[in-house]
Specification:
alpha+beta, single chain, 10 strands, 182 residues, eight-stranded antiparallel β-sheet
Amino acid sequence: MVLIRKEVEAFKFIYETEHLLRKNGLLLCTMGKDKKPNLMTIGWGLIGTMWRQPFFVVAVRASRYTYKLIEEHGEFTVCLPANKMEYALDFCGSKSGRDFDKFKELSITPSKSNHVEVPFVAECPVHYECKVVYKVKVKPGELDTNLEKEVYPSGDYHTIYFGLIKGVYAEKDALKKLPNIL
């Protein structure tokens, strides 16, 4: 599959990214030492500026297979799903990469990134390439008590990864391929 993507300004798709993150989720791609890519659906994240640089911040629980991979490799891509990718989002949000090769199961294509080793999903019209430059673990007792009770009743806390955006790429007609966000 030959992909024609153009590098775009880091915040060109910020509105679409934030909306899709809240609505259906985005696909986070990681890989470990074995170089085998894995996908996870994310519904929490932030895109913005830290240390005068563009960042994509993602939260991954320590119990997730993705946590192991991101710890091993230190890079990730975030992919904005195209129309009709709801099944992929559901699958990647409910099945573990420990048990499934999600790319194979979903018949989707890992594609070579430009600035990181982790691939992106070819079927997604927009993707972010990120390198982890900082991380922080959510610690028991340091979060608002009500939020902690609601989000971490079992004690499965997130690690927050600050991914320096190394590049953002989009297909020419990306907006037409993204789900309707209105």
